[in-house]
User: Which sequence fits this backbone?
């Protein structure tokens, strides 16, 4: 497949690029600073842009099969960036007629597991309060996707870890894995690539966790 990856220098985005290249895909990595992209490969094209306007991004998505995004706030001070930058991506995709899009959100933005225990429910409440601005930004990003013409999938992980890919995790379409507290960034990337061709995940939020 021909893929475009936004947020390619972030933890999840970099893993998407690496794993996609290993799988034989052609990858366009959209970055603000190419020097921060440590991944290399013969099938890799690096596209430099700060996502200020959809028109400038259109060449990066034109003719692609799937667009994947790891865009999002890295701290509370960056709250608002996910929705704003995703609007640019959506504008470019809709202008080019590219439909398949997968993005990263967060577990607390989606529905809680029906069997969630007191400890998990309490932890979810504390985290949601501490990161309320970040989660509000992700909620607005998800609303933008729902209003778009794309075949979107929102991937909602819990706390992220810097560990190697395992390919072993749980996913719940329209919900979240009960008791899921952690997942490696590499496995979030693995899940997103696996979902890219899965019609059951189109226009759905998908919880993913160990």
Assistant:
């Amino acid at each position: 497949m021909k893929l475009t990856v936004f947020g390619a220098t972030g933890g999840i985005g970099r893993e998407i690029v690496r794993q996609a290249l290993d799988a034989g895909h052609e990858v366009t990595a959209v970055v603000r600073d190419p020097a921060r992209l440590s991944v290399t490969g013969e099938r890799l094209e690096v596209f430099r842009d700060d996502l200020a306007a959809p028109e400038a991004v259109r060449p990066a998505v034109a003719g692609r099969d799937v667009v994947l995004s790891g865009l999002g706030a890295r701290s509370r001070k960056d709250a608002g960036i996910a929705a704003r930058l995703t609007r640019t991506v959506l504008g470019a995709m809709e202008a080019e007629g590219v439909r398949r899009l997968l993005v990263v959100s967060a577990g607390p933005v989606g529905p809680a597991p029906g069997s969630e225990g007191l400890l998990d429910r309490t932890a979810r409440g504390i985290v949601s309060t501490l990161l309320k601005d970040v989660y509000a930004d992700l909620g607005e990003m998800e609303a933008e996707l729902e209003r778009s013409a794309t075949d979107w999938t929102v991937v909602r992980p819990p706390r992220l870890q810097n560990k190697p890919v395992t390919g072993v995790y749980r996913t719940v379409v329209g919900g979240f894995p009960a008791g899921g507290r952690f997942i490696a960034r590499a496995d979030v990337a693995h899940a997103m690539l696996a979902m890219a061709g899965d019609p059951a995940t189109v226009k759905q939020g998908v919880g993913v966790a160990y």
Remarks:
- Residues 81-96 form the longest helix (16 residues).
- The radius of gyration is 16 Å.
- The beta strands are 2-6, 26-31, 44-48, 66-69, 100-104, 151-156, 159-161, 170-173, 182-184, 204-209.
